[in-house]
Amino acid sequence: MCGFFSRQLFLSLTGLRDLFFPRRCRVCGHPLETGEEDVCRECFDDLPLTYQWETVQNAAFERLAARFEPQAAAALFFFRAGSDYRKIIYAVKYGGRRRLGYRMGFMLGEKLATNREFLRCQAVVPVPLHPLRRWKRGYNQAEDIARGIAGAMGLPLETGLLRRRRHTRTQTGLKGLAKAKNVEGAFRIDAERVAELRAEGTGELLLVDDVLTTGSTLAASAAPLTAAGFRVSCAILAFTS
Ligand SMILES: [Zn+2]
């Protein structure tokens, strides 16, 4: 009896919460309907997709190729200044919306799986956060995205290979050369894990980050991987244009 009443109380409190603080779409701000989570169906349908997974010669590839030699690269959607879609990135990166990161990653993974270039990869590697920043934030958004990609592509997620060597300043607000200098030499790899991965796979890795701006973070994390003999492709949630 008591359980019944507390459940009724819980349900009416949830109802009250939804009445006063309705769950809203992170992008357009409209109340979410049953079954929708974080982003409404309309906003998902209108996501400004890049279609970069359809061709290897694309804007993401070219931006990265100015810094290192990627095999292939693709982002899921465009991230324009002033666009409401940037709120997806904030929610995934700072807002603790980890399932949204995973779901967006899964969506990207499904696109990448349509192109053989990306299917050559043997594992999905998220760009790591420094342990201190990861501890403060509680999670690494690139890892959530990478887990979604790995799930959609049927590839293993590899988190033990790449590490942050030192604490870099946050990249937000840094431009061009300052940004590149900030992350230069910031990553190292686990030599034992390199040997294991080289022995068991194609030697190609899919490196994952949330946003592609200048490409300096992806280039810095790719550097020790290519030095160890891996070929590197890149997958990014959003491409700044
Ligand atoms: Zn919406």
CATH class category label of the largest domain: Alpha Beta
Q: What is the string of helix and strand elements?
A: HHHEHHHEHHEHEHEHE
What's the average pLDDT?
89
Structural class by helix and strand composition: alpha/beta
Task: Report on the architecture of this protein.
With 241 residues, this protein is an alpha/beta fold. The strands form 2 sheets. Strands 1-6-5-2 form a 4-stranded parallel β-sheet, sandwiched between helices. A two-stranded antiparallel sheet has the order 3-4. The protein contains 11 helices and 6 strands. Helix 4 (86-93) crosses helix 5 and helix 5 crosses helix 8 (141-153). The chain is globular. The chain is 45% helix and 15% strand. It folds into 2 domains: 12-46, no CATH class; 48-240, Rossmann fold (3-Layer(aba) Sandwich). The structure holds zinc ion. Zinc ion is lined by residues 25, 27-28, 30, 39-40, 42-43.
